Amino acid sequence: MQAMMPTPIRAKTRLTLSQHDLPTFKVMPGEMHIGTQPEMITTTLGSCIAVICWDPALQIGGLNHFMLPCSSSHQQDGPRYGAYAMEMLINGLIHLGSSKRRLQLKCFGAAQISGFGPSVSSSNINFIRQYIANERLQLVGEDLGGQQPRQVKFNPYSGKAWVKSLPTTQSNQLSRRERRYLDDVDSELDHSNVELF
């Protein structure tokens, strides 16, 4: 019996045109997007991490955007958490014919922005490096840590990625957005089926 693969969380925001004259998809926290043709996938990062996975043989790739390594209870893990987001991205590419051994990874983000402290940034960095080592994946580039938020753009057909450091003045805005996202997700969880022991 073959296990069912959960439906990937795809980018919900499609921008009409980018400076590269390609369709552009904006990935928000807890989302991912896999592309099989020339297009641009973009995200903005504060303390979060985005991972790009690219298969050079098939010229397909994807980008995820996660906030934390895992939930404190491990009961409500979902796409906003690293382990789940990584499995979704890798399995999505394998489902399209990719091979795990061919995947090339690039990691971005985990800035120390106000409101989250250095522990969030360092735990995200430690998680992704350990995950890549445990899974024996090929890391070809990273831009992690520091104080500045980043904007990342990725073309899944060519495998090229661009990263731009953003002014630290945008840190507060990103911090508020990330905090709001965490609060929104927590309020949407259905706690009515909790069984107490």
Would you kindly provide a written description of the structure presented here, covering whatever features stand out?
By secondary structure, the protein is of the alpha+beta class. Helices cover 25% and strands 27% of the residues. The chain has 3 helices and 10 strands, in the order E-E-E-E-E-E-H-E-H-E-E-E-H. It has helices at residues 82-95, 117-134, 171-188, and strands at 13-15, 24-26, 32-35, 40-45, 49-55, 60-66, 104-109, 138-144, 150-154, 161-165. The strands form 2 sheets. A 5-stranded mixed sheet has the order 1-2-4-9-10, with no helix packed on it. A 5-stranded mixed sheet has the order 3-6-5-7-8, with helices on one face. Strand 9 and strand 10 (161-165) form a beta hairpin. The longest helix is centred in the middle third of the chain and has 18 residues, at 117-134. The termini are far apart.
Summed up:
By secondary structure, the chain is of the alpha+beta class. Helix content is about 25%, strand content about 25%. The strands form 2 sheets. A 5-stranded mixed beta sheet has the order 1-2-4-9-10, with no helix packed on it.
SSE diagram, text form:
Elements: E1 13-15, E2 24-26, E3 32-35, E4 40-45, E5 49-55, E6 60-66, H1 82-95, E7 104-109, H2 117-134, E8 138-144, E9 150-154, E10 161-165, H3 171-188
Parallel strand pairs: 2-4, 7-8
Antiparallel strand pairs: 1-2, 3-6, 4-9, 5-6, 5-7, 9-10
Question: Residue ranges: pLDDT <50 for 5 or more in a row?
Answer: 1-9, 185-197
Domain count, please report it: 1
The global form is globular
Q: Which CATH first-tier class would you pick?
A: Alpha Beta
**Would you tell me which CATH topology applies?**
60s Ribosomal Protein L30, Chain: A
Strand neighbour order, sheet with most strands: 1-2-4-9-10
Largest sheet: 5 strands, mixed
Beta-strand content: 25-35%
The radius of gyration over CA amounts to 16 Å
